[in-house]
Design brief:
Layout (H helix, E strand, L loop, with lengths): L11 E2 L21 E3 L8 E3 L2 E2 L5 E4 L2 E4 L3 E5 L16 E2 L11 E3 L16 E7 L2 E12 L2 E8 L10 E4 L2 E10 L2 E7 L1 H5 L3 H15 L4 E5 L4 E4 L6 E2 L2 E2 L8 H12 L5 E5 L4 E3 L4 H5 L7 E3 L2 E4 L2 E3 L20 E4 L9 E6 L5 E6 L5 E3 L4 H12 L6 E8 L12 H9 L3 E5 L2 E2 L1 E2 L6 E5 L9 E3 L3 E11 H6 L8 E2 H7 L2 E5 L20
Parallel strand pairs: 7-37, 10-36, 20-26
Antiparallel strand pairs: 1-4, 2-3, 5-6, 7-9, 8-37, 10-11, 11-35, 12-15, 12-29, 13-14, 13-16, 14-15, 16-17, 17-18, 18-19, 20-21, 21-24, 22-25, 23-24, 26-27, 27-28, 29-33, 30-31, 30-35, 32-33, 34-35
């Protein structure tokens, strides 16, 4: 990742950038005649002609402050009854709308510019008629200090204790949170790491967050735990080994799912799990099948029949424990119940680890070839495990000053969102709005366009956000009605590029679909 780390006066050359509308910076005593002061963030870079600011997002082109990247449009191509596209056009267009029409185009915040210093309306307030409904979309890039990433890592391996610090390039960037059924969660970034520690920690945290959002791999080290490589949409790599499977369930659930398939093929099954290890003959599933006790005595703390906690320490071995020999969790066999020839299967919650034993004359488990019927059930455990993935969710508080870019009375925007009158999206991707006060949004970065995230060296993350509503609702919430422009005029005024709409995403102006706080 080549995240810029320059100071505000350390600029780079800009070539072939065509100016697009950016609110003029107010001249100050800091700016010389040969420079333009950028007020798109609090850094206030002094930019020499032909160069860009510290964030690489704004440049001085022929004496005008210019957004370097074009605005990203997402197109939803309508199909004719026979299946042919009604509209087609080049993937990238210069100024002008060309064949782009309102029903097929959504203006995203990617490349749009910001409202900072927050007294001015959003860069784009676009009107269009969609399916006969007059709509307004307020488009901006938010500068987020109050933001973080929730990372879900699908793995049966132990990554580290809850609340353990997570480091990137030697700096603390987050912590481990709870584990949820086959997945470990990390909280990365956040305002305290960005602003509450050293300058280096803030810069490294910002760099990490931008890489996560832009779907780039990052290396993390968990205090007292594992080294993990995370890439959104890809399998996590734990201590250098790519993960393959999530667990099918805890040890108890695995017993319940496959008990009937094991019945008659084995006399006892132990499903090894760091959290809830299952024992078939003691489990209610085994009792319902009429299986008698095997005489096995397990280590750990018995919870309910057939369910054991803390059979071993957490780790990267069998079932997320630290063991490599499954027999280590068996304390003894009751000679009154156990018998020579008893068939024992020990298996992990993913089926990756499995061994078959037969008790000898002195009740010692002896490894034996696994019968085909037993192997088939072990393989079925693996078949029912979903692929391991790293999922990255962007979480941000949008309840602050960027609301002024939408309306002069910001609380009305908040209330309109909670009343489900406004669709909130990030780069066109549907955003879940958390209940409670403010506008706290959460969005899956895999559903956003690539390279949606930027940064400013305050440090803070820059991310796209859009608010779409009926034109009548925009007037009612006191929006900047005088700054509304048609889609066609907006396209004529700004450089833009287009990408296909992701059909997995809801169209933001679909007012018949669930809105506002609806699920992702």
């Amino acid at each position: 990742m080549n995240t810029p780390t320059r100071h505000a006066n350390d600029m780079v050359e800009v070539a072939n950038a065509t100016p697009q509308p950016v609110p003029a910076a107010t001249p100050t005593d800091r700016a010389s005649a040969a420079k333009v002061e950028c007020n798109a963030c609090p850094v206030l870079c002094q930019i020499t002609e032909g160069r860009s600011g510290a964030c690489d997002r704004y440049a001085n082109v022929a004496g005008e402050l210019t957004r370097v990247d074009p605005v990203l449009l997402l197109r939803r191509t309508l199909a004719a009854p026979g299946g042919a596209d009604l509209v087609s056009f080049a993937a990238t267009q210069p100024r002008g709308g060309g064949e782009l029409v309102g029903a097929e185009v959504f203006v995203t915040g990617v490349g749009a510019g910001t409202t900072y210093p927050d007294y001015k309306p959003a860069p784009f307030i676009v009107s269009s008629a969609i399916d006969g409904v007059d709509t307004v979309t307020v488009v901006t890039e938010g500068i987020f200090s109050y933001c973080s990433f929730r990372v879900k890592i699908d793995t049966d391996r132990w990554l580290g204790p809850e609340r353990a610090l997570v480091r990137h390039k030697g700096e603390t960037v987050g912590h481990v949170t709870t584990q949820e059924y086959g997945s470990q969660f990390l909280s990365l970034g956040g305002v305290h790491h960005l602003t509450g520690a050293s300058k280096r920690e803030g810069r490294i945290s910002c760099e990490l967050m931008m890489a996560l959002g832009n779907r780039e791999p990052v290396e993390l080290e968990i205090e007292g735990g594992a080294k993990v490589e995370v890439l959104a949409g890809a399998a996590p790599i734990v201590n250098g080994e790519p993960e393959q499977r999530m667990r099918v369930g805890c040890g108890s659930a695995t017993i319940g799912i496959f008990a009937q398939q094991w019945y008659g093929e084995v006399d006892e099954v132990v499903v090894v799990d760091d959290h809830i290890t299952g024992v078939l003959t003691e489990h209610q599933a085994g009792k319902c099948l009429g299986m008698g006790p095997s005489g096995i005595r397990m280590r750990g703390r018995k919870s309910t029949p057939g369910r054991y906690f803390q059979v071993a320490q957490p780790g990267t071995g069998w079932g997320g424990t630290d063991i490599t020999d499954p027999l280590a969790i068996i304390e003894a066999w009751d000679a009154k119940l156990a018998r020579p020839g008893l068939r024992l299967l020990m298996v992990s919650t993913t089926g990756d680890d499995a061994e078959y034993f037969v008790l000898d004359d002195v009740l010692v488990p002896v490894r034996a070839p696994m019968p085909a019927a037993v192997r088939a059930v072990v393989d079925r455990i693996g078949e029912n495990c979903e692929p391991s993935l790293s999922s990255v969710m962007f979480v941000a508080g949008a309840g602050g000053s960027l609301r002024a870019g939408v309306t002069e009375n910001p609380v009305r925007l908040t209330r309109s969102i909670k009343d489900l009158l406004v669709n909130v999206s990030c780069g066109g991707a549907p955003a879940y709005v958390w209940p409670g006060g403010g506008i706290t949004v959460m969005v899956d970065v895999m559903r956003m366009p690539r390279a949606s995230f930027g940064w400013v060296p305050t440090p803070a993350i820059v991310a796209p956000i859009e608010f779409t509503m009926r034109a009548s609702d925009y007037r009612a919430l006191g929006g900047h009605v005088g700054r509304v422009v048609s889609l066609q005029d907006a396209l004529r005024a700004a450089r833009h590029r287009t990408e296909p709409w992701d059909p997995a995403n809801r169209w933001p102006a679909d007012f018949d679909a669930p809105r506002g706080g609806s699920a992702l």
